[in-house]
Write a structure and sequence with these properties.
It is built from nine helices and six strands; from the N terminus they run H-H-H-E-E-E-E-H-H-H-H-E-E-H-H. The protein is α+β, with helices and mostly antiparallel strands.
Length: 468
């Protein structure tokens, strides 16, 4: 037995040894500039950034979405849950005091060795017991377990709040994207309506020429085919518009039958030039990156919680109250009782559980660190993608305008040649088809410019800014 104290000491030391060191967080270095040059004379993004498009209908839809979309209600509920969880963990830093009372009638068994002998034989004890006492419990956070747990909960609360900000930004950009898609489809629909009417007029002319025997049936059928194709394209556009309108209804918290948007006016929404700043500013503005940082802080603090499990837990416990077998004498001085003193719990043999939890916490932090770095790279790519899209779409729009002019002139020339008998109707249909394709391509490019502007706003984090 003389080695018992030494063995006890070794076991205590073994139980209190935590693996070190802990790898601390590192932040990626942001580049000095974006790959795609930034346009000059750009405007700063405001909180209600969609007003930069100067479209009253879009403003109404955004307000409706912010007021009624269930996604934001889900995010708000998550924030409240995280706040309550943080308060519960924080409460562990304070002493705990509880009070309880009992009143009971009891009888012991006479068939046990502790039963008293009365008259030469064991007898049962039957009596009353009344008690009232307060109990105190307080853990001394010597190794920071509770403090680290509080940091975990606080970081999780911040993460939930930032997630709500990110969801709000995503919602507003989704609404704008869907609405501007609808605007683009309306522009195409106007182009197709004009083309359909032109083909209907052409068919009447061709029908008259066929009736008098100037042309063959082949030209007549070609004219009918062009009209039918234009009508089919218009029906397909209506189908696509209905799907986009239904998506807007969902985003604004409405049933599809409750939202029927009129066709947008021909005037084009503005295409604002958005100021992006430098990459380091963007990384501080995006709520999803700030959320990834909060998740990384939570994972790092979780390592501290796992590390504290290797060390003893020291508590102060106490109780004070009254106990008596007679209710009348419960409040008398002899009925008083109390107990007060520290206690210590030392981890010794746990089958490797603490080591496993510590390794799991380290792996969780490494995952959060990698996720944060990945989120930063994705953010940088999204900004450059949006800038590149805007730059190239602008150049495309200029080229397509020239193509429309040339195609329109070619269609006029082909129609004159056909009327003079110098060209077949196939030449006419080809030139008109080319003109229609060029006009629709320009409308699609303009819609893509609007949507790319929205994506740029989203990629730089909107008007959100991190606050400590």
């Amino acid at each position: 037995m003389k080695y018992a104290p030494w063995m006890f000491g070794l076991l205590v030391m073994a139980g209190c040894t935590a693996p070190l060191p802990i790898v601390r967080p590192t932040d990626p270095v942001a580049p000095s500039a974006y790959k795609t040059p930034i346009a000059e004379n750009a405007v700063q993004v405001t909180e209600a950034w969609w007003t930069l498009f100067d479209d009253p209908q879009l403003n109404v839809l955004e307000r409706q979405a912010l007021a009624s979309n269930p996604t934001l209600a889900i995010a708000a509920a998550r924030v409240e849950r995280a706040r309550a969880q943080w308060a519960a963990v924080f409460s562990e830093l304070a002493p705990r005091l509880s009070a309880d009372g009992t009143a009971q009638r009891f009888r012991t068994s006479r068939d046990v060795a502790t039963a008293p002998f009365i008259g030469g034989q064991r007898r049962a004890i039957e009596d009353n017991q009344f008690s009232a006492q307060a109990t105190l419990g307080w853990e001394f956070d010597v190794w920071g377990r509770i403090q680290r747990s509080t940091e975990v909960a606080q970081a999780q609360l911040q993460s939930a709040s930032l997630e709500a900000d990110a969801m709000r930004l995503t919602l507003t950009t989704d609404v704008a994207t869907a609405y501007l898609q609808l605007r683009g489809l309306d522009d195409e629909a106007r182009i197709l309506e004009a083309a359909t009417q032109s083909r209907r007029d052409a068919l009447r002319v061709v029908q008259l020429r066929y009736d008098v025997g100037v042309i063959t049936e082949l030209d007549l059928e070609r004219a009918r085919t062009e009209l039918a194709n234009a009508q089919a394209d218009a029906i397909d556009l209506a189908r696509r518009r209905n799907a986009v309108e239904n998506a807007l209804a969902l985003l604004t918290g409405q049933a599809p039958s409750a939202l029927r948007l009129p066709r947008a006016q021909p005037n084009k929404p503005l295409v604002p030039v958005i100021a992006t700043g430098i990459p380091s500013e963007m990384l501080q503005r995006r709520p999803d990156i700030a959320q990834a940082q909060a998740q990384r802080r939570a994972a790092f603090a979780q390592i501290g919680v796992a590390q504290a499990a290797f060390y003893p837990q020291i508590r102060l416990t106490g109780a004070a109250g009254l106990a008596s077998s007679d209710l009348v004498s419960l409040l008398s001085a002899p009925a008083r009782l109390f107990a007060l003193g520290p206690s210590i719990s030392i981890p010794m043999l746990d089958g490797g559980r603490n080591q496993a939890n510590f390794r799991a916490a380290q792996a969780g932090f490494e995952e959060a660190q990698a996720n944060f770095q990945q989120r930063v790279l994705v953010a940088l790519r999204e900004v450059d993608d949006a800038l590149s899209e805007l730059a190239h779409r602008g150049t495309m729009a200029q080229a397509q305008q020239q193509a429309i002019k040339a195609a329109s002139r070619a269609a006029q020339v082909a129609s004159l040649r056909y009327e003079r008998g110098a060209a077949s109707y196939l030449e006419v249909t080809d030139t008109h088809r080319t003109q229609l394709a060029a006009e629709r391509a320009l409308a699609q490019t303009r819609a893509a410019q609007w949507i790319a502007t929205v994506q740029l706003v989203k990629s730089i984090g909107g008007a959100w800014a991190a606050t400590e």
